[in-house]
Amino acid sequence: MTTQPQRPPATGPVLTILHGDDLPPGHETIDADPRLGAVRYATADQLPEALPGAQALFVWDLFSEAVTTAWPKADQLRWVHAATAGVDNLMFPGLVDSDVTVTNSRGVFDQPIAEYVLGLVLSFAKDFPGSLDLQRNRVWRHRETERLGGRRALVVGTGPIGRAIARQLSAAGMRVEGAGRTARESDPDFGTVVQASLTGADTDTGTGTVPNLGDALPRADYVVLAAPLTDATRGLVNADALARMKDGARLINIARGQLVVEEDLVSALRHGTIGGAALDVFESEPLPESSPLWELPGVIVSPHMSGDVTGWRSALVELFTDNLDRFLAGEELRNVVDKQRGYVAGA
């Protein structure tokens, strides 16, 4: 494992940090914390050796699934903190069914992602990609573009990121609707929230007919995916959902690639079923060079970067160290995840 500076033995909890190519910025401060018995650093293949005896685990290797493989070695673990907002890579049965508390990095990415989504909507409405293509070819071609004011956006996912997106788009003059676990009226950020399924069954009660995603899709000029990846949302945007979207509507996905059936999306784009797509996440990452999404007209591809603004790594560490202080003091942790549902309780 990575060699770390030696320090006098202590009797406090052991912290393991799962990392990839880079260590967390400012990790030296964590290393020197006298309240910790030890700080162990491990890559994915080293994690089984670094988990025994550890009470806390910081998952800095953002989308790693190494915890699943190493889980049998977690004999004293009490807390896992993820340096991500989504925790789908940690929602395996062993951890979900255990008494181990999981926390995430809710709050770090909300506003940056909302700004990114607004930028994508503006790019579509004002055809910035088309302008850049014409500029590269030295072509002077006057065009008319679309207005943003009065256009409808459907934000799928009513957690903190979805709410930040709704507020940003509303401020730009758009009419925003939400899709969440339960249909409701008079939401402070969305106004109307429909139930995020195509079936109409209320996911909380399992019964009844409620306004659902299928009802809202034909109204939306932009459909923005900001929901966590769970069993209920996996493959949510399939051929049926795409067929219900308004002619010329655009799909924006900043959540998880698995919310979309990518093959169905490619077909809808090729046949003009929808007007375009801006994708920051994909079923397989990095996006394979052979994917048709690279070259399909009306598609904007970015490499899972919508929330990554200058200083984001330091902000993640600051949130973790705040929770570490709480953990060591026996206080309530921030951003506790409802493991049965895969998102922060109360979000």
Automatic annotation (TrEMBL):
Gene3D superfamilies: NAD(P)-binding Rossmann-like Domain
Ranges of residues in domain D-isomer specific 2-hydroxyacid dehydrogenase NAD-binding: 118-306
Gene Ontology MF term list: NAD binding; oxidoreductase activity, acting on the CH-OH group of donors, NAD or NADP as acceptor
PROSITE patterns registered for this protein in UniProt: D_2_HYDROXYACID_DH_3
Domain (D-isomer specific 2-hydroxyacid dehydrogenase catalytic): residue spans on this chain: 43-337
Keyword terms of this UniProt record: NAD, Oxidoreductase
Superkingdom, taxonomy of origin: Bacteria
Leader sequence segment: none
Family note: Belongs to the D-isomer specific 2-hydroxyacid dehydrogenase family.
Record-given protein name: D-2-hydroxyacid dehydrogenase
Species the sequence originates in: Halostreptopolyspora alba
Source species taxonomy: Bacteria, Bacillati, Actinomycetota, Actinomycetes, Streptosporangiales
